[in-house]
UniProtKB/TrEMBL annotation:
Residues 18-255 form the ABC transporter domain. Gene3D superfamilies: P-loop containing nucleotide triphosphate hydrolases. The keyword ATP-binding applies. It comes from Streptosporangium amethystogenes subsp. fukuiense. Keywords: ATP-binding, Nucleotide-binding, Transport. The keyword Transport applies. InterPro entries: AAA+_ATPase, ABC_transporter-like_ATP-bd, ABC_transpr_LolD-like, MacB-like_ATP-bd, P-loop_NTPase. Pfam families: ABC_tran (PF00005). SUPFAM superfamilies: P-loop containing nucleoside triphosphate hydrolases (SSF52540). This is ABC transporter ATP-binding protein. One of its GO terms (molecular function) is ATP binding. PANTHER family: ABC TRANSPORTER RELATED (PTHR24220:SF685), IMPORT ATP-BINDING PROTEIN (PTHR24220).
Length: 268
């Protein structure tokens, strides 16, 4: 953690890695406007693996993009650590994303011409920093990719590629990692490996991760799930299990609820 001043959650007094304060965001298309986020407030404590769930269109991606400084809010405030992100200009946002935030996407987004190791250290190099070798070693050890570091992405399985993407996100020791459906393109075995790896990085190194997922099995790897519906936080679940999450999802409007068995990938 690079901050000297810890931001504390008002309710619990815990240090906070990321915070949304009453944020709203509307999208206008032609004559109609959609309230993608409608007064969302939440704290992500440091060292937590948080899940964001909810029906399709409930605002999960918008929330993640706004909290990660990829999109602006119409009202409310967003903090990453002690940094108020809301009024930063594009240049400052680029620096914030580069230095303090890690990203993991459904499509692994690796550069095909670079080796696994070169992909892992690319953001650090682009930031003009030198990788912390001990830290890098421990991240690589946790990924189980040591024997594959000189392989290019097309020589790696999907699960291995996503583990490279996870290592890339972790390598710069960001305040928070935002993961958008990180197992959406993986079979259940590779998905379990990636989720196990993310969980381990939270438990062993105190990394903070916020993960959007539709999959109750994936959500069960997190410490705490936040449920969105129609752009609002409608429920929370500490210590989630796949069964409890699936039951909760079924209580959304029947037309929007998933009805899938735990472990099935896909949209709600
Ligand atoms: N760029 C955009 N322009 C117009 N409307 C948008 C845009 N992005 C999102 N929306 C709308 O905002 C609402 C929330 O979308 P968002 O993508 O955040 O939901 P989501 O919960 O991530 O959905 P999904 O699970 O299907 O990915 C939806 O009604 C969506 O149609």
């Amino acid at each position: 953690m690079k901050n000297s001043t810890a931001v504390l959650a008002e309710e619990t007094g815990e240090p906070v890695a990321a915070r949304a304060e009453n944020i709203s965001k509307r999208y206008s298309t032609g004559d109609t406007a959609v309230a993608a986020l409608d007064g969302v407030s939440l704290n992500i404590p440091r060292g937590q693996f948080a899940g964001i769930m909810g029906p399709s269109g409930s605002g999960k991606s918008t929330l993640m993009h706004c909290m990660a400084g990829l999109d602006s809010v119409d009202s409310g405030r967003v903090f990453v650590g002690d940094q108020d992100v809301t009024d930063l200009n594009e240049k400052q946002l680029t620096r914030l994303r580069r230095d303090r935030i890690g990203f993991i996407f459904q499509s692994f987004n690796l550069l095909p011409t670079l080796t696994a190791l070169e992909n892992i250290v690319l953001p650090i190099r682009l930031a003009g920093r030198t990788p912390d070798q001990d830290w890098l070693d421990s991240v690589i050890e946790t990924t189980g990719l040591r024997e594959r570091l000189d392989h290019r992405p097309n020589q790696l399985s999907g699960g291995q590629q996503q583990r490279v993407a996870c290592a890339r996100a972790l390598a710069g020791k960001p305040d928070v990692i935002f993961a958008d459906e990180p197992t959406g393109n993986l079979d259940s075995r590779s998905g379990a490996e990636v989720l196990g790896f993310l969980q381990k990085s939270v438990r062993q190194t105190g990394q903070t991760i916020v993960m959007v997922t539709h999959d109750p099995v994936a959500a069960a790897y997190t410490d705490h799930v936040i449920f969105l519906s129609d752009g609002r936080v409608v429920d929370r679940m500490p210590e989630p299990t796949a069964e409890k999450v699936l039951e909760r999802l079924k209580r959304f409007e029947p037309a929007r609820a998933s009805g899938r068995a735990p472990g099935e990938q896909g949209r709600i």
